[in-house]
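Minutes, project check-in
Item: structure for the 89-residue chain
Input as provided by the requester:
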Amino acid sequence: MSMASNDQRQKVWVFHGEGARFASGVFSSKELASAWIARHGLSGLLTVYPLDEGAYQWAVNSGNFVPKTPDQRTAEFPSADCLVPGFPY
C-alpha cells in the first residue's frame, strides 16, 4: 500500500530547497507546499512524511521500499544513503 493510495494518517510535506542544508519549509498539504514553492520561484525536493513513524519503517511497511542487501535492512540505512518515501526504488 502506498501512502498516496488510501493512507489516512497525518503527514507533513517537507521542502528542501536546492543546495539548502536544512528544510526550507514544512507544510500540512502538498497544495500549500507547491503554492509556496511556486510563489518564491524555488526548486528542490518535496517529500511527504507520516507523523509518528520513522521514514525507513514507513517505506518498508508500505511496500515503497524493499531491502535488497543486508545493509539496507536496518533503520540506520537511510542515514548513509538517500531514502525518499514514495520513490519507486
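Outcome recorded: The mean pLDDT is 81.
No further action items on this chain.
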